[in-house]
Specification:
Layout: H1 2-41, H2 46-54, H3 58-65, E1 72-75, E2 92-98, E3 113-117, E4 267-269, E5 291-293, E6 299-300
Parallel strand pairs: 1-2, 2-3, 4-5
Antiparallel strand pairs: 5-6
Length: 304
Amino acid sequence: MTRRVEKSKGNEFLRDTSIAIGFLLVGLVLSPVVTQWWIEDVANSPERLAKLLKNADIDGFSEVRKHVNTFVEFDGIDLSEKNMSGARLDSVTLNNANLSKTDLSYSKLDDIKVSGDLSEARMINASLFRADLSNSDLTNADLTKANLTLSNLEKIYGFNSILENAVLWNTDLSHAYLENADMRDSFLGGADLTNAYLRGADLRDAYLRGADLTNAYLEDADLRDAYLRGADLTNADFRGADLTNAYLGGADFTNTDFDSAVLRNVTFYCESLLDANLTNLNSMMNSFDIRLLNSSYQEVESCH
């Protein structure tokens, strides 16, 4: 009888041990899965934020973001073709990101830093105060009415991009490629456009007071009714550009090239023309309908 009891207890011990070992093995197998699930779906972690972004869960991202460091950085994230309108991605860093055709209209993107593909992205009415989009591809991107004040857009590739009514006050657009860009009614006061390529760009009614366009290339650009008071146009190329009704009082025209440009009803300060190239001006100027001003803002008939 005693031997039977001992044998029974031995069997129970072996069974319990086997069960325990089984649970341990299952735990070891599932541990990485559980850990990953915890990190990506439960914990307030960067990994969870990345997953929420990829799923375009803007509300979830904003909620978890409250519990994560203010500055969040992601590398190589693919958000292409996502609808992220109204997102709050301020102070986020997106390195080598794919935001092609992504809709970020009405989003808060202040202090964001993005490098990568933003081609055909929509950022209509987005707030990009102090944003860094330098070296990014903005081909066909739509930034209508976006606020890009004090932002860094150095060396962006913005062929055919839309910046209509955009605010670019003191924005760095040096070396930017903006051929055929739509920049109508844009506010570019104090902007840095040195060495910018603006061939065929639409700058009608643009505000460029005090902007630096040194060495900028504006061949065939449309600057009708543009306001360039005090702008630095040193070595700028306006060949074939249309500056009808433009205001250029106080601008620096050192070596500025107006060859074949349209300068009808343009306002200059008289003495500022001395170093400009005014050869082969468009025939529309033959009636000499340029308004020439001297330093005291009194209209005069000529500079002679």
